[in-house]
Amino acid sequence: MKFIALTIFPEMFQSFWEYGIVKRAIESNSITAEAVNIRDFAQGRHQITDDRPFGGGNGMVMKPEPLAAAIRHAVAVAPGARTVYLSPQGRRLDQTIATELSMLPGLILICGRYEGIDERICQTCVEDEISIGDYVLTGGELPAMVLMETVIRLIPGVLGGEESAQKDSFANNLLEHAHYTRPAVFEQEAVPDVLLSGHHAAIERWRLESSLIRTVLKRKDLLLQRRLAPDEIKVLQQWRLDIEHILQSQSVCGAGALPGGQ
Ligand code: 4F9
After folding, report:
1. 157: left (phi over 0), alpha (psi -120 to 50) or beta
2. Which of 173, 167, 168, 179 is nearest to 219 (CA)?
3. Which residue out of 64, 82, 88, 209 is catalytically annotated?
4. pTM summary value
5. Whether residue 88 lies in the annotated active site
6. Is there an atom of ligand 1 within 6 Å of 116 CB?
7. I need a surface site. Which of 25, 93, 129, 218 has the fewest CB within 10 A?
8. pLDDT, mean of each 10-residue run, the chain (262 residues)
């Protein structure tokens, strides 16, 4: 898969290409990645890429001509790639969108600065508009890197068998279970016994419960979006019984009758 970022700050991408999974994906030829300087497509001695907005007001707008020329160049280099503009007005990036994009032959990522790009570029050259969330940033470079990272790790062969993308948080709309490593006791806190037991089925069961409890407590919205598996329903039903049991013990005995009750 080919990635071309169009930016006036191509240097911002250098360290991104040089570490971890992204570096490995480049080295194994799973992807090619380059940052193209929009300024190289601007005319005149100063190669200006921005201008004042028609109608007046604060801030600058990215001029259409250099951007259009940069996009044309990128489309020629990466035929079949989708042209994406990173913008707060786009559809919100999630794992479903990342999966959809990972199946394309390439992505041309337009990184805007200032108040944004000329609207006519949006209408004629942009095929998809994506937001990484509702907060203010000064440019599309970080969103482009976030998007690339989510997409690259979904490309077959990029992650090793150990780190299969299937198991990750959000891959099935469930948060990941808690993780522990040595030492078995750290500052008086012990690792759950089951994880040291070597009992594989019990460990899997504990991990499922850990995933579910975290998702119920922190991200109920994920569970409401999702069809639960039969073993997950069983866990939730057992919790319901346990919770009902606790509540019944309260109403039957009365709070005052309980040991340590108020
Ligand atoms: C782009 C914010 C995508 C969120 C680009 C200013 C942006 C953004 N998602 N904000 N330029």
Report:
1. left
2. 173
3. 88
4. 0.93
5. yes
6. no
7. 218
8. 98 98 98 98 98 97 98 98 98 97 98 95 97 97 98 94 72 92 98 98 98 97 93 97 96 64 52
